[in-house]
Design goal:
The protein has 9 helices and 20 strands. Helix 4 packs across helix 5. It is about 25% helix and about 35% strand. Strands 6-7-8-3-9-10 form a 6-stranded mixed β-sheet, with helices on both faces. Strands 13-12-11-14-20 form a 5-stranded antiparallel β-sheet. It folds into 2 domains: about 230 residues, 3-Layer(aba) Sandwich (Rossmann fold), CATH 3.40.50.300; about 120 residues, OB fold (Dihydrolipoamide Acetyltransferase, E2P). With about 350 residues, the protein is an alpha+beta fold. It is elongated and about 80 Å long. The longest helix has 18 residues.
Length: about 350
């Protein structure tokens, strides 16, 4: 196990002019940690992963594995295992031959190589599949062969670039459990790239959310979900209402805001939020934390249903509250509720959080 550190790492490509694909990123991935880079397409997460792998060299900044500076070290000198989005398996080779590829390059002896290949296939639940050809395997099995090939060299760091994106939804869920189990069993430091929020939340010890080449927040899945740092993070991780609310008063860690209709509520805020009376606060509240009731309920906000969608586990609604669209995810909805009906909403102050723009 080894920690990985990125110090003020940036990457610019000549064809992109002055735009940085990765802009001044500082990260420390702990030894044995499962760390995920999460963000939309084009945010810089794969470029960051490729710099850790050695496929790209940073335009500026340093990358360290433990105390070693590997910034300008080629990929084959970094002792990393890579799992690609398209698996990059050799179709003309058997499963065992694919897994053996890295060992062959490292000139590992035949007996030791066989032992390690059998061990790696066992780790990914493919014992007995060594003689099969790649085209005989399902997509999920091919993904596990790619994982075994990365693990068999016993890398200091395991790098995974959207390895589940080619699988169907059910297989993705099953395979992500297996990847996490294997990583925990091996104790290997893992850096994982995905644009799938649910995937990142389910698998990670910590997550770095990226936007436009920069890291917007680093934290545990719980921290990022319940205390998003910015409006972008709040909206990207799951769903969230980010409401513009006038500030009535402000303290060090609490801001009192006025809800539509005039009710004043205290809302938790990060330190150094910089808000003052008369300013406008961005306040995040998750749709599942809002409850519905009759429009006549005292103290409730009143709104009109503009969209209604039953999803099985919940009913998603969009409700117009004084011109502000509010998303609600309700387990129970009033019988016969329809688009155009008036409803009451309760926003729990203890579930609301001030975010930066």
């Amino acid at each position: 196990m080894i920690d990985v550190t990125l110090e003020s790492v940036s990457k610019r490509f000549p064809r992109a002019g002055d735009t940085a694909a990765v802009d001044d990123v500082d990260l420390r991935i702990g030894a044995g940690e499962f760390f995920t880079l999460l963000g939309p397409s084009g945010c810089g997460k794969t470029t960051t992963l490729r710099m850790v792998a050695g496929f790209y060299f940073p335009s500026s900044g340093r990358i360290r594995f433990g105390a070693e500076d590997v910034t300008n070290r080629p990929p084959n000198k970094r002792d990393t295992g890579m799992v690609f989005q398209n698996y990059a398996l050799f179709p003309h080779l058997s499963v065992a031959q694919n897994v053996a590829y890295g060992l062959k390059i490292r000139k590992v002896g035949r007996a030791e190589a066989k032992r390690r290949i059998d061990e790696a296939l066992g780790q990914v639940h493919l014992s007995g599949y060594g003689d099969r050809r790649i085209e005989q395997l399902s997509g999920g099995q091919q993904q596990r062969v790619a994982l075994a090939r990365a693990l068999v060299i016993r890398p200091r760091t395991l790098l995974l670039d959207e390895p589940l994106s080619n699988l169907d939804a059910k297989l993705r869920e099953e395979t992500r459990v297996e990847i996490r189990r294997i990583q925990q069993d091996s104790g290997t430091t893992a850096l994982y790239v995905t644009h799938d929020q649910a995937e990142a939340m389910a698998m990670s010890d910590r997550i770095a959310v990226m936007e436009s080449g920069r890291v917007r927040q680093v934290g545990t899945p719980q921290e990022i979900y319940h205390r998003p740092a910015t409006a972008f993070v709040a909206r990207f991780i799951g769903r969230s209402n980010v409401l513009d609310l006038p500030v009535v008063s402000a303290g060090p860690e609490t801001v009192t805001v006025a809800l539509p209709g005039g009710r004043e509520v205290p809302v938790a805020a990060p330190a150094e939020h910089g808000l003052r009376e008369g300013a406008t606060a961005l306040v995040s509240v998750r749709p599942e934390h809002i409850t519905l009731g009759p429009a006549t309920d005292e103290g409730a906000l009143t709104g009109r249903v503009t969209e209604l969608e039953f999803t099985g586990m919940a009913t998603n609604l969009l409700i117009d509250v004084a011109g502000e669209p509010v998303q609600v995810a309700a387990i129970d909805v009033p019988a016969g509720l329809a688009v155009g009906d008036q409803v009451g909403l309760r926003l729990p102050p203890e579930r609301m959080w001030v975010v930066n723009s």
